[in-house]
Amino acid sequence: MVAFDQVSKGYGSVRAVDGLTLALHPGETVALLGPNGAGKSTTLDLLLGLRNPDSGSVRVLGTTPREAIVAGRVGAMLQSGGLMDEVTVAELVRLACALHPRPYRPSDVLSRAGISQLADRKVNKLSGGQAQRVRFALATAGDSDLIVLDEPTTGMDVTTRQAFWATMREQAEQGRTVLFATHYLEEADAIADRVLVLHRGRLLADGTAAEIKAKAGARRISFDLEGGTDEPSLRALPFLTSLDVSGQTVRIQSSDADATVHALYGLGLFPRNLEVAGLGLEQAFVAITTAEEAKRS
Ligand SMILES: Nc1ncnc2c1ncn2[C@@H]1O[C@H](COP(=O)(O)OP(=O)(O)OP(=O)(O)O)[C@@H](O)[C@H]1O
């Protein structure tokens, strides 16, 4: 479906994408995560043929990205795609359908994107979240095999966001590949069946959300200590990666929870309400990217 082979792209001295090799398969819903500047937008630009790699190759559906787009096989929703100002939503959607080699009916596109009631509104009179829905409508104006979304739900309220993802899930169930970049890790956790973590233009992790959490390897331990805490002793616990003390409540992250808890009892302390839990995707993401930064410094 999509194949990146040793792709690099730099801007001056910045290596935005650094030797990226990646394959996406039909029907996958893939989240692209990474801190600011990790190279997510550049990766999507390369995939859409908006930029050319300095080295390596990008293939989409067996052709160049541009050929795939001209054939209408890729729908895209970019972060800040300008919308024509002086037209109505319906006119814009009709135009997108007219330009698509395999178009849907404009009325269906409007209703799928939940903007039928906005059809006669001028595009420059839309709120931020409504404009995002229009961008989504343009990305799904025809029958594409691959849908690429760069931070699609930015500016959407909770209800709009849920409706958006329900629609996206339908698209994936019909066999389309959906690739989206996001900063909302809970969305990646809930929606993606594959998560890619990009950092300084390289792939740090690639797997299901559960695999990424397991890769982070850390566990959260929390407990209450009656009668005050001895912070220096806690800080010296083995395998500790973070410590947070708030009143009687202690929250720890550990790379070996069993050993840390064992040592905790060894200190003669009596933790109450002890809980040991895995990391959420957000904490796993922070753990993985911070560990990489630490390796580099
Ligand atoms: N047109 C450009 N000219 C120069 N440098 C650029 C350009 N576009 C991106 N960069 C740099 O390339 C790196 C990757 O940027 P990119 O926008 O791909 O990251 P990102 O992961 O999408 O970031 P964000 O989460 O902040 O949107 C950054 O260091 C950025 O400053």
TrEMBL record:
Membrane-spanning segments: none
Alphabetical list of Pfam families matching this protein: ABC_tran
SUPFAM superfamilies tied to this protein: P-loop containing nucleoside triphosphate hydrolases
Gene Ontology molecular function terms on file: ATP binding
Membrane topology designation: Peripheral membrane protein
Ranges for domain ABC transporter: 2-225
Keywords (A to Z) from UniProt: Antibiotic resistance, ATP-binding, Nucleotide-binding, Transport
SMART domains: AAA (SM00382)
Protein localization: Cell membrane
Domain of life according to the entry: Bacteria
Protein name according to UniProt: ABC transporter ATP-binding protein
Protein species of origin: Streptomyces plumbiresistens
